[in-house]
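How it folds:
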Amino acid sequence: MTNRAPLEEFDPAKLHDGLLMAVENVHEKLRVAREKHRVMVGNPVIQTPAQNLDMAGVTVLGYDECQTVLTDSDRFSSSIYENIMGPVMGKTLLEQEGDEHRASRALVSPLFRAKLLERWRTELVEVVVHELIDRFASRGKADLAREFTFAFPVQVIARLMGLPREDYIRFQQLSIELLSVVYNWDIGMAASATLKEYFGEILAERRRDPQDDLISTLAESEIDGERLSDEEIFAFLLLILPAGVETTYRASGNLLVAMLTEPSLLETVRTDRAMLRGSIEEALRWEPPISTVVRVAKKDCELGGIKIPKGTNLSVSVAAANRDPAHYPDPDRFDPTRKNFAHLTFGAGPHVCLGMPLARMETTVAINALLDRLHDLRLDPAAPAPVIKGVAFRSPAALPVKFTPA
């Protein structure tokens, strides 16, 4: 890969801190706003300069209202992503709608079938996870954010794509730089250009000599009898990066914060692994890794008592919906014994996340491996307590732990 950076030059915290905006009391601000308005003009977390629809758009805070926006594709469109991520990714599933969206989704959905996921679990995810733990298991201490949760999903995606092992670190760095377009246009666009150039070389190789990997599958795929163009394939690959990496590493980090700050819960899950599924779902509800998705009104309509003109941008606050007391008793408490797992973290409706099964499987494998191999796992008492921070993206920037050296 061009401009490859050696491992010692890459500290993920320096890059992803830009995505973890330090806004205090995010959930408290959302709670106060939701109690007043389940749908409101403006943004309750980041104050907008003008509280009118044209400038500020609408924020949707109630669970039922959020679900309505996500499932009603007649009134609300995801085409807004053309302006947000289109410049760095091209035309992706995020912005596609109708028949075009269904055809593209059908192309990649077989990648997430149960039989293939089981193969990925044993041949790929378990291998990656244990290789990473091997690096620090004998040390007795680690930063699980930098050394584990951040590293394993991007390695899984890189191996699924069939990328050379020596490119993993640079690939990981570019995956964050790509998302940085939301606050630094130049960094995001430069990462996009580098990745497209790199993927172009790999794609040309796979067209000459197909392998058992995702890029080869896409190179041989057709929609309506037509092979995918390079740009269409790049769009798939550039979307899979944040979709496959961001959600998993942030969600697993958030779950570890919840478990490590409640040692009795950690021990309960260690002795009863049946509790892990509920813990994963509760972490997804309690601290969604991506807190907001966006839509645009396709026609004049009304939601939550607010008239919404055609063309209005809507921020769907998954984080607020997931803590709506109308749906969840004591919603701010992390409770893995909850019976209601119907959170909106993976979205809803036509654009519900395709990678849900992979994300859940990866997190299950990762937590099980940590519990199996790191005995007496606990927060490092000499280090600052981990903090989940961020607005659009939420996770701990650091997760210092100690354990019995293996």
Confidence is low (pLDDT under 50) at residues 2-9. The radius of gyration is 21 Å. The first strand starts at residue 39 and ends at 41. Residues 230-260 form the longest helix (31 residues).
